[in-house]
């Protein structure tokens, strides 16, 4: 992975943060996308426009996949593709909370090769490339392994529904954060032991965080245990488990066949 790609993503993420903070706690215009897709705001669109201009201008041969852009099937013909969530955690952003992030990644031949998750309101910048350590503000990240019983897991309430487990759900200590990208970084950082989604997850939510977690020493897979692949025709993974290897294995063994929505 050429170092300039990661540097470009970091620059873009920091500029995205500057734009977002101009709208944060300023009552930006917002509306619902419909179809259960949740809210979007003028801040999301402003950040998206800036990112697309900067990143595609710098790498015109790269594809583009963003939550806030019309999908272009031509991206699949590109060897490299930007995968972007302009503001991950829009509800938190609109409520004036600090836990929103900018999630930026590059996929090369279906795998993530550079990643940045930036939380401007908290001054946190997580970085990773395909080779080398994952870092937070320059310091290497170290995850915290744990047995399944009592593990601190970031997941929605549905993640502990017994229907998703073989038998009863294990006694996990469930917590939640609004940005899915940040959840993966918190696992990489060792603040929590695992992140779980029993529902489908969009690529833009997990692309950057999955590489950061992996380079920290975690495993990041679909619920089935299959590797995550990116820049797919339908850019959604069939659920997600992110944890250090021992706990990851225990979670995969305990989850039901498909972890249906």
TrEMBL record:
Cofactor(s) required for function per UniProt: Mg(2+)
Gene Ontology molecular function, alphabetical: inositol monophosphate 1-phosphatase activity; metal ion binding
Family listed: Belongs to the inositol monophosphatase superfamily.
GO biological process terms on file: inositol metabolic process; signal transduction
Gene3D superfamilies assigned: 3.40.190.80, Fructose-1,6-Bisphosphatase, subunit A, domain 1
Residue numbers binding Mg(2+): 67, 85, 87-88, 205
UniProt KW keywords: Magnesium, Metal-binding
Protein name from the UniProt record: 3'(2'),5'-bisphosphate nucleotidase CysQ
Organism: Paracoccus yeei
CDD domains: CysQ
């Amino acid at each position: 992975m050429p170092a300039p790609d990661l540097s470009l993503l970091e620059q873009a993420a920091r500029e995205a943060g500057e734009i977002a903070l101009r709208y944060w706690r300023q009552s930006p215009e917002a509306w619902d996308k419909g179809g259960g897709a949740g809210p979007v705001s003028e801040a999301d669109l402003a950040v998206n426009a800036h990112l697309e201009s900067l990143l595609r201008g710098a790498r015109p041969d790269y594809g583009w996949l963003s939550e806030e852009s019309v999908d272009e099937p031509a991206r699949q013909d590109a060897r490299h593709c930007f995968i972007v969530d302009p503001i991950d955690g829009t509800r938190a952003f609109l409520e004036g909370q600090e836990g929103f992030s900018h999630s930026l990644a590059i996929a090369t031949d279906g795998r993530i090769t550079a990643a940045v998750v930036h939380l401007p309101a908290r001054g946190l910048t997580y970085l990773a490339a395909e080779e080398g350590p994952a870092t937070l503000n320059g310091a290497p990240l170290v995850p915290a392994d744990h047995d399944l019983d009592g593990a601190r897991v970031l997941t929605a309430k549905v993640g502990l529904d017994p229907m998703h487990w073989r038998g009863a759900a294990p006694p996990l200590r469930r917590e939640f954060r609004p940005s899915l990208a940040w959840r993966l970084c918190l696992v990489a950082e060792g603040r929590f032991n695992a992140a779980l989604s029993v529902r489908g997850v969009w690529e833009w939510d997990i692309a950057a965080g999955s590489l950061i977690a992996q380079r920290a020493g975690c495993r990041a897979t679909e619920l089935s245990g299959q590797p995550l692949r990116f820049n797919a025709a339908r850019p959604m993974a069939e659920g997600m488990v992110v944890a250090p290897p021992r706990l990851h294995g225990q979670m995969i063994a305990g989850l039901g066949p498909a972890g249906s929505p």
